[in-house]
Amino acid sequence: MVKPKNIRHMLRNEKHWNPFSDQYDAAKVDQDLNKYSETLKENPEVADQDDQLALNIVENGPIFNIIFKQIYDYMRDAVERTKAHPEQIMKFLISLGNHDTILINKTLDEKIQQDNSDGIKIEEVSGIQIESRDGRTQVNVVGAFEMQVDLLNNLLNYLRYFLNTRKLHDNYDEDHLFRIAAYLYTSSNLLVLVKDSYDRITWEDGSIREFPENELHLVFNKQNYLKLLKVGQHRIDRNVLSTIMETQTIYSKRLDFKALINLKRKKACLSEVLVDSRGFVSIRVTSTGDYPFNDEMLNGLATIVSFYPHIHLEELKGLERLTIRDILSLYSDLLVLAKALRESLLNVEDPQSGKEMKRLFIRIKKKELLSYLQSVTLFSKSQIESFLSIIEFDLYNIDKKIRINLWTKPLIRTRDVYFLLLSSLQAPNYLQLIDEWLESAKYSLDERGKALEKVMKEDLQKYLKGKGKYAIIPEKQKFYANKRDFEEIDLIISMEKMIFIAEIKNIKYPMEARDFHNGYKRLKEGANQVKRKRDFLIRNRSCFDSELQGIDGKNIHVAVITNYPHFTGMEIDGVPVIDYLALQSYMNKGEIKDYKVHINDSDEPEMEVMNTVRLWSNMDEFYERFEAYLRQPTIVKNLIKDVILKLEKISLDKASTQMFMQVASHKTPIPIS
C-alpha cells in the first residue's frame, strides 16, 4: 500500500488547512482527518509518529484563523466601503513604514553614542535593544527593522488580492485612507508575529501544548534545535562584522585593493537628494577628484568573503555579463541613495494627516534611478536594467503565487515608478540577497555545492600539509568497485590514523520557516548519502586500500559539511552537521579567537584579540578530539552555554486565549538604556 500523506504534510500543503488563508475550511479539515483515521484503522502500520504533535496544531487552527480574519476582513471591507484602489492604501502603508524607520534610526544613533565610551564587542552591535513601539518590551534593533519589513510583506501581499476588484477609483478622502492604513499597520503587528510563530512550528516540526485557562505554548520538538540556531546566527553576525573591520583596514592601506573595488565606478558622488511634497525623489550627482568611499560595497564584499568564498567572479548567465561583484556594486549605490533619503528626512515633523504623510510615499521614476546609476558607475544602460530586473517586483504581476518579498526585491514597481521602503534598504542581508541573485542567474544549489567542494579541497590540501605522515585528498569524485558498483563521494581525507568522509551541501540562507525546513531536509539527504557511501567504502575496502594508504585499523568519521553555521552541532540520523568555517578552524591552525572592536568617529575601527582557545596541540590530540569536535565544535560548545530557552508572549493581554512562543535568547542580553 502507498503510504498516505501524514497530518503535517496536509497541514503544510493543503490551502484549506491553513488558518492564514481565505480558503481555510475547518469542516473540510475534519472530513480529511476522518478519512485519514479510517485509513489508519485498516492499516495501522502506516501511522506516523509525528501525527499527534501535528494534530495539536490542527485542533487550534480556528483560534489562529480568528486573528487572520480580523485583519483580512477589515481590509476587504475597507476596500469595498471606500472603493479606494488598494494601491493607494499601499502607499500610505509604505509611508508609515518609512516614518518608523526614521524614528528607529534616530533612537539607534542616540543609543550608540551614549554607550560606546569603552569600545563594543563585535556581537554587541547586532544585540542593541530599544523600546518597542507599544512600550511593552525591549526589542532587538535589528529585529525592529525586520519586523517592519515582514509586516509590509504580509500586508502588501494580502492587498494584492483586491487589485482586480471592479469599480475601484483613485478619488478618496486622504485622512480617511490614512486612518485605515494606520489601523492595518498597528494592528497587524500581532498578525505577523502569530503567523510567523505558527509557520515555524508547522514547518520546523514543532507542536502546541495546551494548559488550563486557555493557555497555549508553541514549542519545538528537536532537542537543542533553537539553541543551535541562535548560536549559528550569532556566529554569522560575528564573522561578518569581523571581516568587515578587516576589509575596511585593507581598503585604507592597500592601493591595489582600493583600485579593484573601484574598477567599475566613476569619480562622482551623490551630492543632493530632494523629496517633494508628493514623495517623488530627485537626485544631483557631482564629479569628484577621487572615488568616494562606499562602505556598503565593502560590507557586501566582506559578507561574500565570509560565507561565499567559493563563488568566483565569472559572468552570470542571462544578466548582461554582470558578476556578483558588479551586482553588489550597483546595489551599494542604491543603498547610498536610501541612506541619503533617510538623512534628508530626519527632521520631518510627525505627520498628523494624510496630506502630510504624502511626503513619505517615497518613490522614484525609473528614468531618474537609471540616470543616477549611470552617473556613478561605468555600467551600460542595459546592464543596469538587467540589475533592476532582479531587485524589482511588479505590483501588477498576475501570478499571485509569486509573493512580494521586500528582503530580496526591495523595489515595488508600478508602471515606471518604484516605491521605496527604507527599512528594506537598510542593513541588508547580503547572504540572502546573494542566494537570490545566483538563483536569478540559474546558478543552482548543486552548482554552488560543487564550487564549495572545489575550494574546500584546495584549502584542506594547504591546511593539512605537514600534519602527520600524510594527508590524501583524492581529486576524483567517482569511486568504482566495478563498472556497475560505484559511488560519488564529495570529500575523502585519509590520514595516518583516520579517514574522514563527508557529503558537502550548499544551502540557502534561511530567513523564513520554510527556508529552515528546506535546509534541514537537504542536510538530512546528505546524512543518508554519507552513511551509504561510508558503507560502500568499507564493503569494498580492498578496492581502495592502496589509494588511501590503508583503511583497516583507522577511525572512520562521517559528517555533512555545509556553508552556513545554523545547523552546526546538530546530528541528523546519527550524522554530525558542521559548517566549513568551524571545520576550517580545526584543520588549519587548530584555534579560535574572540575579538573586541573599538569604533570611533575619527579613526578606522580597531580589533583587539580578547581570547585564544587551542583546539589541539599535537597530532595525537588532533586525531583523538576530531570526532567530538565534529559533533559539537568548541565554538558551539562555548557559546551555547550562554543561550537559554524561554517563552515569549505573542498574544494581547485581553485575548481570550493566551499564546506563548518558545524562543532562544542569550542569558545576558545587551540592553542599552
UniProtKB/TrEMBL annotation:
Name of the molecule in the record: NERD domain-containing protein
Organism (species): Paenibacillus hemerocallicola
